[in-house]
Amino acid sequence: MNICIYTSDQPSAASLLNINHLLQNRPDHNYSFLTVVKPHAKQGLEQKLKKIYSELRFDDGRFDLQRDSLAIDKKVEPLIPRINKKDFRNGFADEVNDEKSVQFLNEIKPDIIIQSDAGIIRENIFSRAKIATINVHHGISPDIRGMYSTFWCLFYGIKEKIGVTCHFIDDHLDTGTIVAQRALNSNARTFADIQFENYLLARDVLVEGIDKLAKGGYKIKTEADTRSYYFGFPNPFLYYALKKRNFEPLMKISEKTFKLKEKKYLEF
């Protein structure tokens, strides 16, 4: 298959783990990269000193989520297979969904586009894939959507919703047809340990999803009335409070409003 990886010039450790694992374990596909390159402001000495001072002066828990997330990335980095993007065809764009992206995709005519830290993809991009544009979501979607799903599952005490979903990208966030999905079966207790295990699970779910799409012969089935929650970036003080409680739930999910959505999945 002709697979295009739509990414950024500064992808996360989790995205690098997923993509490089796929390239290493499924080398027979034809891969290309479309990279969104944005100017990045360099942090001067004054800004660095202010940041250090702020963390020392106001070390009241507001930086714990950032620190723990960085620690997870450091733990993941040694596990990332070393793949050189220069060995593949490369295209570059100034912004996600821009005309340069469209032109490159029109040239390579991908069967599958993998969203890998490029940003929120619009129809002018995801419709360019012959089979599908897919995303790897660190959560059981469409039940749990949005950012930091692992944190929110711990916050509301729904660990059974911690896992990974490989799904089609559509007009909404984390609602597309499920290609592959696995819940995380873990005895870990902290956010950092659980999220690390979930990152390792994600690389296998992506490979499973690509294998299913390459095999073909599937139908899209619909299941109605699925509870669907959308979460954004957590308040750092909520994370600190959860951490101080040894990651025991702070609220019940029943106290959170939700919407009923249909769930679509592949059936072979």
Describe this structure in words.
The protein has 268 residues and is an alpha/beta fold. It has one domain (2-267): Rossmann fold. It has helices spanning 13-25, 45-57, 64-76, 99-108, 123-126, 149-156, 191-215, 236-244; strands at 2-8, 30-36, 89-93, 112-116, 132-137, 144-146, 163-168, 178-183, 219-231, 259-267. Helix 1 (13-25) runs parallel beside helix 7.
Based on helices, strands and strand pairing, what is the structural class? Answer: alpha/beta
Distance between the termini: 19 Å
Overall morphology: globular
Count the beta strands.
Answer: 10
Instruction: Give average pLDDT, whole number.
Output: 94
Characterize the largest beta sheet: strand count, sense, and whether it forms a barrel.
Answer: 7 strands, mixed
CATH fold title: Rossmann fold
Task: Summarize this structure briefly.
With 268 residues, the chain is an alpha/beta fold. Helices cover 35% and strands 25% of the residues. It has one domain: Rossmann fold.
Question: What's the structural blueprint in terms of helices and strands?
Answer:
Layout: E1 2-8, H1 13-25, E2 30-36, H2 45-57, H3 64-76, E3 89-93, H4 99-108, E4 112-116, H5 123-126, E5 132-137, E6 144-146, H6 149-156, E7 163-168, E8 178-183, H7 191-215, E9 219-231, H8 236-244, E10 259-267
